[in-house]
Write a structure and sequence with these properties.
The chain has 5 helices and 9 strands; from the N terminus they run H-E-E-E-E-H-E-H-H-E-E-E-E-H. With 180 residues, the chain is α+β, with helices and mostly antiparallel strands. The chain has one domain.
């Protein structure tokens, strides 16, 4: 008995059309921020700048924002703190495609469950650049930050295989933002 490909494809297409596509299958619908590139240097006058990538792929930048809400010792930010930080950002006009955002967001679960190397002193007065990702908890309405990599005075690295890919991606985004 021969089954035509249209008899197989039609039901499959119908099933796929009813399931729909969620914006991002690995993050909560309430999660606003996903990744952050954060540079701080106190050595030659206060410098604090970076960018946040939100759940729609928008790249939001900041440069010496007043009253910035920093993560606590457990790497936690409340929903209110995140909202306050977003208000201090500017829309860069650059955006990550949803396909690209889904690809890199898929790595967060692995990064979050991996070990991080101990801090190693590398330089002095170089400041600190942190590459971070976040997971949102609807139960506590908080964001848990995870270090992907830290560079500068001290170096730390997430040992997950995908960490290097995410850092290279974020460095490329930063380079594109700083091009005039």
């Amino acid at each position: 008995m021969k089954i035509s490909s249209s008899k197989i494809l039609l039901p499959l297409l119908i099933i796929l059309s009813f399931t729909g596509c969620k914006k991002n299958f690995l993050i909560s619908e309430k999660q606003t921020i996903i990744f952050q590139y954060d540079y701080i240097n106190y050595a030659w006058g206060y410098q604090h700048n970076g960018f946040i990538i939100d759940n729609e792929g928008n790249i939001l930048t900041y440069n010496n924002p007043e009253d910035w809400n920093f993560r606590d010792k457990d790497m936690i930010l409340t929903e209110k703190q995140v909202a306050g930080n977003i208000l201090k950002c500017q829309v860069s006009g650059k955006k990550i495609t949803m396909e690209e955002l889904r690809k890199f967001t898929a790595y967060i679960k692995n990064i979050a469950s991996s070990e991080i190397t101990a801090p190693k002193n590398i330089a002095a007065d170089a400041g600190s650049t942190e590459y971070l990702c976040y997971q949102y908890s609807g139960t506590t309405n908080t964001y848990k930050g995870y270090i992907i990599k830290t560079e500068g005075d001290f170096s730390r690295e997430n040992l997950n295989f995908y960490s290097k890919k995410v850092v290279l991606w974020m460095k490329e985004i930063n380079l594109n933002l700083t091009k005039k």
